[in-house]
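Q:
My hope is that you can spare some time for a protein that puzzles me. I hope you can help me see how the letters and the tokens relate. Thank you; the sequence and its tokens follow:
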Amino acid sequence: MSADTPTSDAAPFVSDDSEAAAAEEEESQDAAQGEEPSSGVSPVRAVLTVLILCYVNLLNYMDRFTVAGVLPDIERYFAIDDSKSGLLQTVFICSYMFLAPLFGYLGDRHNRKLIMSIGIGFWSLVTLASSYTPKEHFWALLLTRGLVGVGEASYSTIAPTIIADLYVKDSRTTMLSIFYFAIPVGSGLGYIVGSQVSNVAKDWHWALRVTPALGLLAVLLLVLVVQEPKRGAIEARPEHQLHRSSWTDDLRALSKNLSFMLSTLGFTAVAFVTGSLALWAPTFLFRAAMITGERAPCVDSHCSSSDSLIFGAITCVTGVLGVASGVQASRVLRSRTPRADPLVCAAGLLLSAPFLYLAVVCAQASTVATYVFIFLGETFLSMNWAIVADILLYVVVPTRRSTAEALQIVISHLLGDAGSPYLIGVVSDSLRKWDSFLWRFRSLQLSLLLCSFVAVGGGAFFLATALFIENDRHLAENFIPADDEPIVVPKSGRSTLVPVSSVLI
């Protein structure tokens, strides 16, 4: 197959589209005849597995942004400034980021279901412990929020690879879309549940006690329902034909994969912007409402606010619209160009930049206009989630996918949302001339303008990805281990290169 031949983005790691179609047809025939699918997981169990993974993904993001939903209360409770508030998100992301390579390594070599179950169980217990932090020990809240990253690192590096081992072609794209719908929906629910539980209980601590119980339920579902699929088998490339290489060899190969590296840098910009907005947008809107006179200044330990609720609802809706429109736009454009995925990602970031800029600038003049611009900016920003995951899966061979997921997590978070919430807080504190309600709003407003410029840079990285995506996908689909010399075998009236092992086994 030539590198110029347009292919479906959801059919990675097979020699051509006819083979992918044949694999899917054979899979459906096996299911109809009652035979075990090549993945080792029945169709019904596969659907249940994806739904459970979606539930856990939703829960992870719900917990991550519960803190942002009650951040004004946390600031008053611990008497901290913006820079220390930003640390709450930064320590979590740093923990998550540094542990991701470990879980990526383990996920490529050991039972993924067991790893996820242990990680999520630990995360649930630590999250519950964080809700009992006394006001004299802010460091304890930072520590427990950092340990929460263990659960997400054990899950985010592994879950997409399980979906990839259950489905191919359009089925994989659909399931990945459902999986990534959980990110914006979970994020929005985090704001909503956090703020509303805090309002009802008149105590922000109770906002952190909702997700632990749901997390323990997730562990039970993982243990009782989810079944470990065979790596690469559904793509007609089972594990015994895919020679494992060392971790250093995997990293070396991934660093030379330009499509993977450039798309990861583009996704880093997405992480930077979403991380900044996720923590600071409700607080920014809360301060803007006081400046416009819509809300009286709050000096109590608990201040009821509708901003987290509204922003959470916007995040849910824009996430669903963004992911769905991104996937649909990619499907439509694939018939015209094999570079559709990175081009859609670039368009999403470049279109989001001016709307995010207007949302920040107009906050003091019109709250309605601010919400409208946030809605449009977040919709375009969300177009990237499922597509970036699909790009990784079809430019990386199956035995390196968890490692690739981990490396992408490290890079995107190290340069993205690991530091962006703290950076925004530090810039805000440095720009504040007086400790007044006006300057607390103004300094945060100026610091948030940085997000628009980062979004433009991310769009440029995705445009660069489009230059290499065809060749890198072709190389991944026709990957041959170094110790497996290719031979020529007739196929459909023409010759093709295949590994020796595929003929001998």
User: Anything to note?
Assistant: The chain has 21 helices and two strands. Strands lie at 486-491, 494-499. Confidence is low (pLDDT under 50) at residues 1-33, 484-505.
